[in-house]
Specification:
The structure holds two protein chains of two kinds. Chain A is mostly helical. Chain A is built from three helices and two strands. In chain A, about 15% of the residues are buried. In chain B, strand 10 and strand 11 form a beta hairpin. The chains are: A mainly alpha, B alpha/beta. At the A-B interface, helix 1 and helix 2 of A face helix 9, helix 10, helix 11 and helix 12 of B.
Amino acid sequence: MALTVKDVEHIASLAKISLTEEEKEMFSHQLTVILGYAAELQEVDTDDIPPTATVLPVRNVMRDDVPEPSLTQEEVLANAPDPVEGFFRVKSILGRPS
Amino acid sequence: MELYQLTIHEAWELLRKKEISSVELTESVLRRIEETDDKIRAYLKVTPDLALQQAREADERRAAGDDTPLLGVPMAIKDVITTKGIETTAASKILEGYVPPYDATVTGKIREAGAVILGKTNLDEFAMGWSTENSGYFVTHNPWDLDRVPGGSSGGNAAALAADETIGSLGTDTGGSVRQPASFCNVVGLRPSYGRVSRYGVIAFASSLDQVGPMTKDVRDAAILLNYIAGRDPKDSTSVDVPVPDYTAALDADIKGMKVGLPKEYFVEGMDPGVEKAIREAISTLEELGAEVREVSLPHTKYGVPVYYLVAPAEASANLARYDGIRYGLSIPGEDVWDSYEKTRGAGFGDEVRRRILLGTYALSAGYYDAYYLKAQKVRTLIKKDFEDALDKVDVIVGPTIPMIAFKIGQFSEDPTAMYLTDILSLPNALAGLPAISVPAGFSEGMPVGMQIMAKPFQEEVVLHVAYAFEQATEWRKFKPPLDAKAQEVKQ
């Protein structure tokens, strides 16, 4: 399964990563190689085998809904690139078809 | 004997007898770092003022009657584990300048125990890699041969331990990142069972695989650290409510009658003959100690690589989606919000990280999910079952940690994907969630060789028991690197 530059462009737009033309070329080759290893898995019979998403037998770990102290607003905004009056400022989200 | 050469338990002995103070011990290690780290580059950041302050506090606590193994002992922490108030970067440019407002649970535990934090060690960016060459900052050098890698992703930890630039350390292991550098640098690296140690505050790479692991100069130290970090954490719902025994009680030199399994698939074709020889001699040592060694089979071993390289990148693509320049880290403004994300992530992530995010995104995307991610998860079930079946017949499974010695820096720069094939022995047991340790087991061409010992989930005691018995019957841990560029022939 060979990945083309177009495939890489599509994946990169899903992952929101900008790439140069050289990088798109490079990654299309490298990803093709890695997916070649992955193709080996097709030879394994997994018809009645359930997938393992986690090795632990735990599911839906719950706790009581009791509020506890957390970080202050100041602490949380301390690393913010563009804090404004207690908010993280972002560019507008609506206005470009995605 | 210099103070920086001590192990955790040796330091504890001297501290409790008041023959040394934590300040003296810390000053010795800080001086060692100053003298050595420009050659090794194990540390991304050294925190001498904090360390000395903690050392003074530890000495005060000790004077007031407190006496526990980590009190006043200098520790290094891999920079993928958050430390409140100390810059934490995951060795990525995208987190340059990020100062966490909270401690990881494991960091909090060792702080509470009175450990002294020396600094943050280098790693492959976001723990993705096997050599520490993928660090966004600089490469760490193997103290045994400065032209070679220390391994990865916890290469900084392993190098610091080998060069005595720390007394103990905490690393992380997703597919081998604690064990393989331990093997390359002649130190001990323990990967606990998945769920044994809290991942809260550990910068996530692959959530079904990541585990914090002690990396130390000997097995006793690893048991001591595991005592502190193991246990259920309400902040990590994947940390399991299994009681934490005293792991140091498992350190027994008698392994008579223990059944040791040697997978026939683990002596791979093309394996370094020096590594094979060292491991076979190590196995003879286990037999001399009274263990019963028998062949087992783990038929799906070879699928560990493709399964890992679908599952881990898929999980990583989800975990690394948070790096968008909005709440922290690198933030490059673009024309609109999407453009800002793309520019920030394009510039902030290195090649290996971007490679894995792209791979993971593809494996999860519509039309490919079944053939790639789901298929890999099914084969993962078979890999796990191989271990369950084998560990019904034997107490532990052993083999080489990695079928090679540390490679030269730059060796895989032409073809980074070739490095993926090197770690076939540490991936399957990580996928199965087993506890596993790498212990020094000899040398090949002057470079360290590690032996891996693994057991059933939550049987760290069994792993530590066999590791300790082997370690005490050999002298490998006492060898120290000459700290020059030529690999030295080690006298045996």
